[in-house]
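HUMAN: Spend a minute on the protein record below and explain its fold to me.
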Amino acid sequence: MKSGYLKTLAASAALTLVSSAAWAADAEYTLVISSWAPPTHNINAKMWPKFTEMVEEATDGRVTTDLKLGLAPPPAQMDLVQDGAADLSIIFHGYQAGRFVTTKLIELPGYDGSAEEASVAYWAAYDKYLKSAKEHRGVKVVALHTHGPAQLHTADPISSLDGMAGLKLRVPGGVGGDVGKAIGATGIKVPAPKVYETLASKAADGVVMPMDSRQGFKLTEVAPHLYEMPGGFYRGSFAFIMNEDAFADLPKDIQEALEAKVFGAPISREIGKIWDGGDAVSRELTEETEGNTMTVASEADRAVFDEIAQKIIADVIAEVAKTGIDAQAAYDSIKADLSN
């Protein structure tokens, strides 16, 4: 399964490159993308190719992209784009504590729905409420999206919520960090690309990440045991961002085409779909990988975590309200969209 999946992934990426080549040959504008995930992660193997496909189609091939890896670590991507060293990038908001607050609303536990549905609801809440906080000032927000429910992945099996207390866990910033603290874990903040080596060196007992990461960051090799909380411990908040000058330099008709056919809800939805697909593949990979196990939280553990989650939700809504936006309305909007 594993080798077959990677072959399929490579073939898919190759087909995308071939199909894009015809457009790229005649493109008038090439947008440079900076990305920090491994080459085979869905961010680079599927999300950016999908973005490129949509851009090329919307502009009749006048605009294409050039994906570059390793230009800067994940926390530096916002500044990289703002300074014009790249035209586009993907950022994880939790890597920059204090810089983004309103984005924590989508990270909260307790939401229903897929990553696709949550990403569309996220964009709608941003467009109506969150953008007035101007947390992305200096760059243009192209898309907002979230992965599927984050779960616990460990080197040794964990059978209960109590078993997480005292563990050294890689947690992201944002709500993921709040959850780690609430369950009594010792949080280790490591960017996602460093997760494999952190676990392999035994510097951490486990990580809390989406199911997708079992393939994307090879967790099946270094964290073979999965403890699954239905609904997840949190969801991560991501954005595709663009340099404002790079967008302004495009002809007006191209700008209008991108705004109407690509940016916002359309690409946010497509990225969410890819996150969902990655979760499904990683679940199957886990089931078929020798030595990997999956344990689903008991009803009692779910009830305990729900109490923890309710406090975190209340605290985050209060924190976001301090930015001046209607945090409760924004939260209610997301929750309502995911309940339909």
